[in-house]
């Protein structure tokens, strides 16, 4: 075991040795030489730059900036902002000298001509240079610490290499003074609208609406041609809302394309909007306005517009000094300040509130700010205090005296990453102040003038959204990162934050970064129909808008890319195509839609109703069929409509159902058209019951008879004729005897006649309707028994031989508690029914006798079952003996 | 329905509902999952309507809802009042939200519109919502729009309540009119709901690999299921299948069972028991001759026995003899019209359309062959050691259940001839499972079959299937689903047309 192992290791050593001896190849040597020469030259440039700058300035201040560019080039990764110029210079000088020596050392040794001077310098000067460099670097880091601590900048620890992905591209011609500014949530785009010009209506001085990415890259810019804009804001899906004085809200996408508009109500027209706010909640993006009459109107979700006019604030004569919108317990409310009073407005009431622990000297509130999560509220009072508390105004967090009495320009909540404490940032013209829970505050007095204020302003905007911005950068960085592991970690970082995957992908999609979005979906293994499918759908919707390409090319391209990816709705894409006025393309796209039900609404919209009908039937969804049918009915003339239905039996039967409940007359027309006489007959029968007079009923029934005859349904025709005959009899009886007979059945009519002693009339009906004897006998005996006309019953029993036997006589008498009468008929009962007859009148002994005579075990059992504990012992014995006898046989 | 309103008002019945929920999980398939899913959806909807609520009920729905959620659940979600949907004005209630729980029916939409319009006049600040059960309907929304009230609703949603768990092995859609709609009116709405319900079931319990069926409606439902699966191609169900197979059976394959049987421990009526025994089912007596049956029916009519009983007897005779002689049929019909009123002419016409009553067209009667092949009447049953489903009903085995039994062993191929005699096509479909979801069966592990009765199931059939499940060497356990739990009376009633004339 040991020997071969040794052998292998030896050969390995030999190989290494041979490589060492050979040295690098010629090409590699050339490359290395060039590289080292370039590097040496580069560092020389820096060195020369340093010396020249020093000579010209006579001071080392500002030396760094003179060499910044080459330094960055040759020392990639040096992105740190310079905090402490002295320490930087210290290590830059040290580096420069070291690097010049190092690279020239490499160059010469590659060329195998290493001058002693270089060698000496490399192995000696480091004694001075390295400590110098290290000291410089340490000093720099030390100097940077307070800054990092203060701002929390870079506190989001990112595990990736620091590569500058993009530069801030701000290129504002004029500052941000008098601009309406809106930054989208989560570091989305930023929109600007010049305010100073917006009051001038002359065409020449139209204000410009500009949209920038968060990094300052211009995305759109166009002159504003509509009305006076009061406020601008972004929706959660990166659409820009421009709220005009007249209450109209115009919606643009982030590329400046107009999407749609809506109004905040007619009431606004008179009083105009004096202030507006855009807010975000679980329901989506909302808009709140206050009018010149100081009334508030809310729309909690602009995609499902429902305007809510909030109740009046009693005694409000002037505009509220400040107000804010907040969402609590699934309700959107407005907090407003007027003088020293605070009110909360919800859908139903206006409630005055007092923040706990507020200074009673406060006579006015200058500013109000709600945190992003709607959890906290900050109030800036005329006493210069910032009151911070929960937004339900139940709890005070802290109060801070800013010592500034003038109203701040802006006040916002911010929460630093990883910090539990929310704090409030306030801004005046020349002061930025961060106030938190503790007594201390951080102040940034702005020394510079207007131009720098703009920068400050933008930074502050960013500050509100610092965390999401970082998250976003993580994601974007991930797109550039090639190491899967790093990528994964980056995306994990993102997962911890409030931005969901959905939001992320939406944002990429809104920015038309489709390939990147797809890659991320695939990488994160997001279920197809939430991820890739959605992106592809957006892509397709964008694609159909490209007017220059022909229909089939687009349809084909879309189908190729989408195939039958799960969750792709071709109908949605087709709908978009139709919106863009491309009906043909829409129809082509619909053909790819596997769900026939989904195709229907759009086909109807495009007036392809016949196709819509067959698709609806195909889907099996009857409601959809109904919908198309009602549509067809309104659209077509009656003849065509009926013809269409005739070719679609499923639709026809559904429509019949509909008519049966809703339109009786149409139903008749339908049957007529199909020559369905049987159904027509039934229809008239049904109709006859809706008629109020006997004549009308008869007429309807006559129609039914005619139809039944046409249908060759002899039975129904005859039965209906009979029914008419009965009606005529009943009418006669009703008139004669002043008793209601109509709508009784024949059976009931006869029964009623018999009960009233109208035997002649009963007999007439019996004959006229050919009532079977059996049934007539039953009818008569039960009617007589009910009437307790025993005499007539006996007479009837003797009239001729009963077709139903005589047991029924016994039974009806017993039923009407007349055992005496019943017994009269027992003797007439046939032998087979004797036992039952005896039992019916309660004569057990006779029953036993009869049963014994019949030698029937089951009949004996029947008798036995009627015996009770009080029954005579001897009788029981008799039965049992007889049973034993019957069994023996 | 009265039971449920009881459940919502009294304490002890609430306990009953809780018990019911527990027993749903005892069976082979835990149907409580389905109930929980339904409850969750209900809670989510209620939470969407913030604030206090009043529910206005389509009375028909209170029964099914009672099986899903008791009043305490509603109360927890701020439901303070409940009303029945009625024309006119809504009763006064100091609530923020009015929610209509309705079936998608046009006539109900008109009532809702009336309610809403009446309310608007009072200038109240209420929010209106509609919850359609089991599905939204464009048609209904259109009607609301025509009435000018569609805009008054904050939420219009659907509550997909197709299959409601009744017992540990029993699901019903409680759709009263399903049989009538399918066989009389050619309205396949309930079949669409069935297919949707089965898709929901598969979403919770995994794709069912095998589908068998017999009958036109069964074929239609299977087609819709396969289509729906295709429509959602790609979104694959990753749940290990709980059901091994699905058997779809049309009610009209076995019309006799609901006519004849009502005789299990769940619903035994002495009077009907004796009749059915005398006429057809008493195993120890040979079935009586036709004239004997005729005269029995005649007597029943003469004595004015309840009409439904008469109709059942007549239909039963027709079904068993492949129709009645024209003369006999006309005689019965005339007797019925004269005795019970001519308005029943439409009911008779319905029974004929549904195939329950028909004139004999050929002399050939298949029923005896079917009876013998499928052993529907067992002459000798072993009472000590029952081994056949006929034990459950003194010797009568429901045809539908025999089909289920023979499907498992030895397979339908052995009874091809008989299957051809029964109405509608029979078929088998397979649904592809994603790889890795194929069940590895343990030795001796039973298969689970879902038997779906389209057009209703009787307690008799349920009891027979339960008997099969419990048989030790059966190898298959059954879960039963249906459009409606029926008995002969309510089934025939659903086919009747009630005509009432206004008083003259």
TrEMBL record, chain A:
Quaternary context: Core component of at least two putative endosomal tethering complexes, the homotypic fusion and vacuole protein sorting (HOPS) complex and the class C core vacuole/endosome tethering (CORVET) complex. Their common core is composed of the class C Vps proteins VPS11, VPS16, VPS18 and VPS33A, which in HOPS further associates with VPS39 and VPS41 and in CORVET with VPS8 and TGFBRAP1. Interacts with RAB5C. Interacts with STX17, MON1B. Associates with adapter protein complex 3 (AP-3) and clathrin:AP-3 complexes.
Record has Membrane as a keyword: yes
Gene3D superfamilies: Vps16, C-terminal region
Residues of the Vps16 N-terminal domain: 161-446, 449-496
Keyword Cell division appears in the UniProt entry: no
Coarse class of the protein's main subcellular location: membrane
Residue stretches spanning the membrane: 30-55, 88-111, 123-145
Family (UniProt): Belongs to the VPS16 family.
UniProt name for this protein: Vacuolar protein sorting-associated protein 16 homolog
Family annotation (PANTHER family): VACUOLAR PROTEIN SORTING VPS16, VACUOLAR PROTEIN SORTING-ASSOCIATED PROTEIN 16 HOMOLOG
Protein's membrane topology: Peripheral membrane protein
Segments forming domain Vps16 C-terminal: 568-884
UniProtKB/TrEMBL annotation, chain B:
Keywords: Protein transport, Transport
UniProt xrefs under InterPro entries: Sec-1-like_dom1, Sec1-like, Sec1-like_dom2, Sec1-like_sf, VPS33_dom3b
Main location: membrane
Matches recorded under Pfam families: Sec1 (PF00995)
Biological processes annotated in GO: protein transport; vesicle-mediated transport
Origin superkingdom: Eukaryota
Membrane topology recorded in Swiss-Prot or TrEMBL: Peripheral membrane protein
Subcellular location: Late endosome membrane; Lysosome membrane
One GO cellular component term noted in the UniProt record for this chain: lysosomal membrane
The family this protein is said to belong to: Belongs to the STXBP/unc-18/SEC1 family.
Protein name: Vacuolar protein sorting-associated protein 33A
